[in-house]
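CORE FACILITY INTAKE
Project code: CF-77B
Contact: R.S. (postdoc)
Sample description: multi-component assembly, two entities in total
Requested service: structural model of the whole complex
Turnaround: standard
Below are the sequence entries exactly as provided by the requester. Do not edit them.
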Amino acid sequence: MVYGRWTISGGMITIAIGLLGLLYLLVVGALGLRPSRPVLPVAWEQPMGLVGLVLFVIGNALGLFYAPAERFMGETGRILYVHVPAAWLTMVCFLVAATAALGFLFSGKRHWDSVVESACEVGVVEGVLLLILGSIFARPTWGVWWSWDPRLTSSAVMMLSFVGVLLLRGIVRDPDRRATWSAVATILAGVNVPVTYMSVKWWRSLHQIQSETMKGSAIDGSMRWILYFNTFAFLFVSVWFLARRYRLAEARAEAEMPEPLPPAVPRPGVTA
Amino acid sequence: MRTLRQTAQMLRKELLTEWRQRSRVSGIFWFALATVLMVAFSTPESTILPRIAGGTLWLGLLLASTRSLDQSYAVEHEHGAMEGLLLWPVEPVAVFYGKALANTAVLVGVALALLPLLVGIYDAPIHGSLPMLFLTVLLGCGALAAPGTLYGLITSQARGSSVLLPLLLFPLVVPALLAVSNATTKIFEGDPMNQAPSWIALVAAFDAVHWSLSAVLYGRIQED
């Protein structure tokens, strides 16, 4: 698209969306963490979620109708635009969970535990989405719904170990124990995240290796910006989920807290 | 040095408890053997038995380990020994290593007792090198014991513990289970392509991660 002297490409729009989202998170999100001084009439994550949903619809339309067909996989390759962001965000959520678990073990603050809870849950939801999308992708390209390829196996293991954390949280009643135990389980489960990421490099098998690395990209520019467009859509929606779930966890933890003792009644003749 | 001495003391105490309650270890052994037999019964053709012998050995050990790990704490809780242990001036790291080493020893013992039976029942002669097989068994049992000792402490204190331990442990040890099963199968069948060492290296890496990480985290759970 050319406007006078300016040429606007899809890549530029995507970068702008990413930067604006980051700026919003840094400014409004950081301010919105303090409930005492509301910046917006609604919680800060609500506009972000709305934008994320809109981006999600546009991104899917771009991936389905606008993007060029992939050279080897043809139209089937279009599922990449949702499969890859789902994979990235699953791992991001699990990494957030593991980091928050470390934060809890070091600081003992309840807020970290709420982050663990929300990140584990959102990560598991996106992981389920990832495995379903992957199966749909595998059927036409590999001819099977599921293969015991290292990438697939490690992803499933990663998912299951975080499901284990959620089950542990469901079973333990005592809030302090639940927080410590699930932090430990989250860290152990978090070991699977780098293993899953590196599995395609360590054991070369059916699944392709990473296309996007620090050293460069293997994806053509005409498809790459749509991939990142969808990634930002996923990211915004995930941040929305995480923040909503965090607030829910905080509210539940608040409700679990024992009632404070009534203030001491002063008695005549007794001095403190 | 002090930690080492404490670890040795813990290990001695654990093994002594096991020795005085020999029915526990034999129970674990029979459980593993029953699993191995059940797999054999549920296999439609006996011709594939030799090929699944390696995997079945580890399946049996994994299932048996969930029983043994649970019980190693159940004994402590029964007599209030856990509180006593906490009152001792012993570092949690030493408690962890003592318990994990004892659990490894029990599992290795069960595995070694199971191996000849497996060779007989599954008609799976060992073509590969025996020292390599022992190394695999040792590393594999360690891979089950380290996260198991940590999770055993958690689940022994929680409600519905008998369900929880497998749920937490199984996903975590899948990589190790995959690697030891492959290595064991390769050693059973003879290993012309020399593939077993790379699988054993994977188990060793798994051991290195979990024996260090679990030891660090153990103290935090023991505090509760």
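Facility notes:
- The helical segments of chain A are 10-32, 45-66, 80-107, 110-142, 150-171, 175-190, 192-202, 221-256.
- The mean pLDDT of chain A is 83.
Invoice: internal transfer
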